[in-house]
Amino acid sequence: xxxxxxxxxxxxxxxxxxxxPWQVYRxxxxxxxxxxxxxKKMLTKHPFLDHADVAYYLALRxxxxxxxxxxxxxHLHNETHDxxxxxxxxxEVMPDDEAAKALFDQVTTVARDAGMETLxxxxxxxxxxxxxxxxxxxxxxxxxxxTYNPPRYIPLLEHLGFAKAKDLLAYYLDNDVPPExxxxxxxxxxxxxxxxxxxxxxxxxxxxxxxxxxxxxxAWEKNWGFVPxxxxxxxxxxKELKPVVKPDIVFIAEKGDEPVGFAMALPDLNAAVxxxxxxxxxxxxxxxxxYARKIxxxxxxxxxxxxxxxxxxxxxxxxxxxxxxxxxxxxxxxEFSWILEDNFPMxxxxxxxxxxxxxxxxIYEKPIA
Length: 369
Description:
The protein is α+β, with helices and mostly antiparallel strands. It has two domains: 3-169, Gcn5-related N-acetyltransferase (GNAT) (Aminopeptidase); 173-359, Aminopeptidase (3-Layer(aba) Sandwich), CATH 3.40.630.30. Helices cover 35% and strands 29% of the residues. It is built from 13 helices and 15 strands. It has helices at 11-19, 21-24, 36-45, 75-81, 97-113, 153-159, 180-192, 205-219, 231-241, 270-273, 284-292, 314-328, 344-352; strands at residues 3-7, 52-61, 64-74, 85-93, 118-121, 123-124, 130-131, 133-136, 163-173, 196-199, 250-255, 258-267, 297-305, 333-340, 356-367. Strands 1, 2, 3, 4, 5, 8, 9, 10, 11, 12, 13, 14 and 15 form a 13-stranded mixed sheet that branches. Strands 6-7 form a two-stranded antiparallel ribbon. Helix 7 packs across helix 12 (314-328). The radius of gyration is 21 Å and the shape is globular. The mean pLDDT is 91.
């Protein structure tokens, strides 16, 4: 049957784009179906689209979808890093090498026409959302806001000329007894620096979110792949996460009234969302609420410190506080992700409290000039 590549335009095509993974992952016990409505909203109304050019493509064989991909030109990324890089994202394909090649040929052509020199990914949409390909650790479901894919995507991308750009690590901890000695040491180090650590104030949520944004954009500005979050993006993220935020596992570090660091964890909502099979109605929401009561794992999504407050134990203190907070919520295990493979201070801080690497994700790239 003939193969065609079509740009997604209109609601029917968008629906086929969003629901293709149900074919790709049929029978996979570890895949977590995303909520269809939320995915459509992300693809069409996310504030990321205000500073990026994005196009979605479907591969059709005999008129039926067999693959999908997004072309992403993140102008803010290129301005930040002085690059000419385009990204691919939301990539999924049936076992059909011809379709995969045609999808990447389409994105490569558009990127070249835009004057780009490198194609990198996967990114959905950027390092501020979901990104990277799972390359090790296929024996368990992904944590909330982390990616998942079939192992066959690894040789597929490499056959298409992509090579590793950077690995991202996910650490795991399944011991709910925090090391008392490290906790005392970290508390003393913070006190010596005049640092206080408190939970997020839900009554003044907007103000605390703004403090987080200030630290976030300074703490990561020199990190590989970092893109600053705009005010619209941080407001969007805050609105999306506020209903599921647990103050016991979200912390702000301050010196006086000035924020110097923060750490945020969420219950691993994937453990509940997977039971909805992508739809909130008629029974999906009830299933999510039912299984959410049984969540016993958290994911530490982000931790950031201003440069002058690193390497003095405050990172360990924030991790340990989340450790304690999670235990109060009945969460006995946690994922810390993702960490750049060469972020040695952060890796060492996690290893000191007993964490181990249990999943590895990879960003791929290839020259296209």
